[in-house]
Amino acid sequence: MGYVSIWPILVLAFIHFFGSRLRFLAGIPRSTWLSGASGVSVAYVFIHLFPELHQGQMHMEENVVWAEKFLEHHVYLVALIGMSVFYGLERSVVSAKRKQIKRDQGESKSPKGVFWLHIGSFALYNALIGYILFQREEEPTQTVILFTIAMALHFLVNDFGMLEHHRGNYKKYGRWVLVLALIIGWTVGYVKEVSETIVVILTAFIGGGVILNVLKEELPEERESRYWAFVLGALLYAILLLSL
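The structure assignment produced for this chain is given below.
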């Protein structure tokens, strides 16, 4: 195996370690920078990742017999499944937290069981992203940079969402778990190469997850999100992607 660049995984790990310390990003109304970061993540999925999935769809139709017979657009179905899975996990976490708060007479601290469910789902999410990141080692440096920037900003948005749900538990345990999962995923990519079909499926799943995780942070009315910042972030990154 040739030279392997580790800077992308270090950048993403750095975000989890120190991103939550950027206190100016916290609070309501939602930070302009977080809304802009959400826009960047979504722009990357629609402008760069989904076109890759189109190529992956053609690969799967040529190489996976059951895919062609079962569903013509099944790569996009995987993206839909990814979005649905993370939506279901998020709803279960929110529901469990509300029930616990009622039992505890208004105490807003998230129960440990809910915390570990939430962290476990995002640990899997991070591991898949780490794996996909390594698979991009053979792609042009420009492609790796664009993916890393989009995921770094996406992680920043996720971190503040986790802080809102879990506060001290996330700072004490959660960020370490997410960094470890990210590194494990990257390491698995280093020691074990899988077929292009599996990489396409994982990428589609993550694409759906990114869209859901961005929207769940931006849409709630109580967040008072900055729509103009979201649109500006998406527009500027889309222009960048289309110009390269």
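Interim note for the steering committee: The longest helix spans residues 32-63. The CA atoms of residues 36 and 233 lie 4 Å apart.
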